[in-house]
Amino acid sequence: METIYALSSAAGRAGVAVIRVSGPASADAVRVLTGEGPGRPREAVLRTLRDPRDASILDRALILWFEGPASFTGEDVAEFHVHGGRAVVDGVLVALGRLPALRIATAGEFTRRAFENGKLDLTEVEGLADLIEAETAAQRVQALRQMEGALGHIYEGWRGRLMRVLAHAEAEIDFPEEEIPGDLTRKLGPEITRLADEIRNHLDDGRRGERLRDGVEVAIIGPPNVGKSSLLNRLARREAAIVSDEAGTTRDVLEVRLDLGGVPVTLADTAGLRDAVNAVEQEGVRRALARAEGADLRIVVAALRPDGGLEGDFSLAREGDLRVLNKADLGPSNLPGAILVSAATGEGLDWLEEALTQLVGEKAGIAETPAITRGRHREGLLACLGGLERALGALREERAIELVAEDLRLAARSLGRITGRVDVEDLLDIVFRDFCIGK
Ligand SMILES: Nc1nc2c(ncn2[C@@H]2O[C@H](COP(=O)(O)OP(=O)(O)OP(=O)(O)O)[C@@H](O)[C@H]2O)c(=O)[nH]1
Ligand SMILES: [K+]
Ligand SMILES: [Mg+2]
């Protein structure tokens, strides 16, 4: 196994930078730079780092030594906590690069080694990637939970039970007993049914976990000039979108990211909906409708007119969408089911934000039991469920036990692919794509 090294903290100037080395030559790397072997495992030592070519001083650094397999990667690991200046970091990296046994790590290679050495399963690797990407508090909680194995344990638990059922079925193939009709169904059926029910329940999560990971998509729609862009600017607390009294100001879909109660939200402003006056506006309207269609939630906006009449209506609102009547400053009004606001004065905006936060929280966020966070998990679980249902069907029809066993085997394999316990070579590049060098 080659020994790899990389800067593991972010590039650029910083107080401290961490350079990580992993592999059998890690102790040599410490020896060459400090003139001494590594200290005791997990105890920081302060050492002078010298360039091995001319003994010039590179830095005074803290060195942390982890003896494999009790390390992140499962191999011997040395961490150099150096001063985070560019010349210091470059000097140490160049010195390490001169050691013949060392080479620079590729993106995600430290984590990949952790996976290959059984330190993390694939769901835990994904949790770690999500933790590094987490922007909001709820995302952090979900990522940490997954990194600590919450999802992996559930899937491995199901796989263990499935393997036991499979063992029974296989025993039946090897040592067929006196066939009593329906006997096998009575033996295997209940546990397969229970497993299928549990997986079905887990799948029926309203995509909360996936939405929390990706962000909830909210689209603001309505006719021109009702104040959609003005409302977006209020919610974003900055002048993100152009506002004017000209109908048809907004053409492109404009997105801002919000953190509503810990849930990341992508709020989209869209072109006003009307029979467009030209091709560009027409394209804007097409995009607005497409975005509204794809969104998890719509804020449908109408506005009060100075004459007391109504601009727009809520015909595009679906159940669970927000209906907003803007320009409440123009006169008295009362529209049941609509939130009254004024983007001009700020009136009612607290309510709007509160209602939006509440709805978003219903669609995404932390539930008591860990939720599916990626389409990859969902696909694996659906494939597993399909196998279990086919196995149950085959049992009911009293088909050959070999066929039942084959379906159970496929179901177990689909579960195993989620955690990476069975042939996943083809998956690894996809899972590790999210990592950068040093991770
Ligand atoms: N009186 C009043 N005027 C408002 C309010 N909100 C927005 N306006 C005005 O209404 C006009 C249109 O506002 P925009 O935010 O550009 O409306 P829009 O819905 O994004 O318009 P398009 O992008 O053209 O579809 C501007 O002149 C705003 O200043 C409000 O609450 N009260
Ligand atoms: K406008
Ligand atoms: Mg606009």
Task: Walk me through the structure.
This protein is α/β, with parallel strands linked by helices and 439 residues long. The chain has 3 domains: 3-105, Probable tRNA modification gtpase trme, domain 1 (Gyrase A, domain 2); 124-206 and 373-432, Four Helix Bundle (Hemerythrin (Met), subunit A) (Up-down Bundle), CATH 1.20.120.430; 216-363, P-loop containing nucleotide triphosphate hydrolases (Rossmann fold). The chain contains 14 helices and 13 strands. The strands form 2 sheets. Strands 7, 8, 9, 10, 11, 12 and 13 form a 7-stranded mixed sheet that branches. It has a 6-stranded mixed sheet with strand order 3-4-5-2-1-6. Strand 3 (45-50) and strand 4 form a beta hairpin. Helix 6 runs antiparallel to helix 7, helix 6 runs antiparallel to helix 13 (401-419) and helix 7 (183-203) runs antiparallel to helix 12. It binds guanosine-5'-triphosphate, potassium ion and magnesium ion (MG). Magnesium ion binds at residues 228-229, 241, 249-250, 269.
Cα distance, first to last residue?
A: 18 Å
Shape: flat
Number of helices: 14
Give Rg in angstroms.
29 Å
Order of helices and strands: EEHEEEHEHHHHHHEHEEHEEEEHHHH
CATH superfamily of the largest domain: P-loop containing nucleotide triphosphate hydrolases
> What's the architecture of the largest domain, going by CATH?
3-Layer(aba) Sandwich
Integer count of domains: 3
Q: Which molecules other than protein and nucleic acid are bound?
A: guanosine-5'-triphosphate, potassium ion, magnesium ion
The unreliable regions are none
The third-level CATH topology of the largest domain is Rossmann fold
Oligomer: single chain
Q: What can be said about the biggest beta sheet? A: 7 strands, mixed
Proportion of residues in extended strands: 15-25%
Q: In CATH's first tier, which class of the largest domain applies?
A: Alpha Beta
User: Percent range for helical residues?
Assistant: 40-55%
Q: What do the pLDDT scores average to?
A: 93
GO molecular function: GTP binding; GTPase activity; metal ion binding
Subunit structure: Homodimer. Heterotetramer of two MnmE and two MnmG subunits.
Family: Belongs to the TRAFAC class TrmE-Era-EngA-EngB-Septin-like GTPase superfamily. TrmE GTPase family.
EC number: 3.6.-.-
